[in-house]
Amino acid sequence: xxxxxxxxxxxxxxxxxxxxxxxxxxxxxxxxxxxxxxxxxxxxxxxxxxxxxxxxxxxxxxxxxxx
Length: 67
Known about the structure:
The chain has 67 residues and is mostly helical. It contains four helices and no strands.
């Protein structure tokens, strides 16, 4: 629900929105990130590990540079 609101508000205000869940592989992908070795997500299904946040930051940076 929150993701839908963010998307709607960004669209209405002609604002860029980067979708971290999509960058991770879509719905539920945090669970597979938690199973990687080393784990990129914690077992709570919400937070990333330090390495996971690095991976996300690198993806965001790459996408910004490409745009």
